[in-house]
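Q: What structure does this chain adopt?
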Amino acid sequence: MKPINQKAWFLVLPVFLCVAFSAILPLMTVVNYSVQDIISPERRVFVGTEWFAAVLRDEELHGALLRQLGFSLAVLLVEIPLGICLALSMPAQGWRASAVLVVVALSLLIPWNVVGTIWQIYGRADIGLLGAALQALGVDYNYTGDATDAWITVLVMDVWHWTPLVALLCFAGLRSIPDAYYQAARIDGASKFAVFRYIQLPKMRGVLMIAVLLRFMDSFMIYTEPFVLTGGGPGNATTFLSQYLTQKAVGQFDLGPAAAFSLIYFLIILLLCFILYNWMQSVGTQDKSEVAHG
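A:
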């Protein structure tokens, strides 16, 4: 039996140190703050779970959570099908494929704060193309004064910014499908929908799972774009959880409640990602069993 070289663990040690420094230590600091009332840098009082109870009773937090869930659900319902359709319509090979890939990926290169600024200008009726066009069509559009317009604008901005990521992941999944599957489908006379339903979609399940989890986590933590575009307004229409947390920690300097809220925020994301992952795994298992029995 060949002996195991334990010295290989030393190669992983730098990764553990980086994770400990960048994630574990800040997390423990947040846990420490969440159970204390920080009166001043020198005075702190242990309060136990008082901040957690106060945060869970906060009605503004409940409203921000509902807005966040609605926004993240809308992002998934729009960006995942749109990304799949975009990937299916992209050229498979040749210089056209390379050119389309570059064009599709352009929005991903724009920083988040610049995206908010672009759409801030784009939606204005006096100098923005979108605002001026809607005004010319007789549409009463004002993302700074109407809550519905603001919410839809933030959603469309996110769709424009991140749908290419879903499309690129799906494109990679489509390109990994062997041509033998398509040849067998042509011999059997399968329709385009049948090819998509029984060949392309099951083979894209892995990348779709990555796309769903990435887009859900990112949309659930969105901050910069709506902050630059609307500042969370009008009212609290586009004040999502991350901005609410920032207002608590930075604006009001309530470090204890903000730390407790950030831990609850982290657990919510973890729980919802776990549910999404297991649901997508179960869907893939059911599809495989249906094909096998079919």
